[in-house]
Automatic annotation (TrEMBL):
<protein>
    <submittedName>
        <fullName>RidA family protein</fullName>
    </submittedName>
</protein>
<dbReference type="GO" id="GO:0019239">
    <property type="term" value="F:deaminase activity"/>
</dbReference>
<dbReference type="InterPro" id="IPR006056">
    <property type="entry name" value="RidA"/>
</dbReference>
<dbReference type="GO" id="GO:0005829">
    <property type="term" value="C:cytosol"/>
</dbReference>
<dbReference type="Pfam" id="PF01042">
    <property type="entry name" value="Ribonuc_L-PSP"/>
</dbReference>
<comment type="similarity">
    <text>Belongs to the RutC family.</text>
</comment>
<dbReference type="InterPro" id="IPR006175">
    <property type="entry name" value="YjgF/YER057c/UK114"/>
</dbReference>
<dbReference type="InterPro" id="IPR035959">
    <property type="entry name" value="RutC-like_sf"/>
</dbReference>
Length: 128
């Protein structure tokens, strides 16, 4: 089975040696998304965790759409945050993007630093 690179010009281009997502069979592995704007390449809401979280979720949606999927197809998310003190707000925003009956499994981990010093990064796995 060959892996297929998934790319969306509606999400930020990778800033390193990785793909936005890889499709292997009926599973799509979306790389960690941060709050970069796809048009400007600039951070959105720098330091504002709410704005960053919304942009991250929009980026994930764009990559999923390029694979012909939606957030309903997401089965697992990994959330990395700079400060777990922001968990409540991030959780509220993140949750607003998923229907209750389709909420994926996930973990949330506090880390010391994220790319470009953002507040939040989210990756996911989706299945057709």
């Amino acid at each position: 089975m060959a892996n297929t690179v998934v790319y969306s010009d509606q999400a930020p281009a990778p800033i390193g040696p990785y793909s936005q997502a890889i499709q292997a069979g009926n599973t799509v592995y979306v790389s960690g998304q941060i709050a970069l704007d796809s048009n400007s390449g600039q951070l959105v809401g720098e330091g504002d965790v709410a704005q960053e979280t919304h942009q991250v979720m929009r980026n994930i949606q764009a990559v999923l759409q390029a694979a012909g999927l939606t957030l309903r197809n997401v089965v697992k998310c990994s959330i990395f945050v700079k400060d777990l003190g922001n968990f409540g707000l991030i959780n509220e925003i993140y949750g607003s993007y998923f229907e209750a009956d389709y909420a994926p499994a996930r973990e949330t981990v506090e880390v010391s630093r994220l790319p470009k010093d953002v507040q939040v990064e989210i990756s996911c796995i989706a299945v057709q």
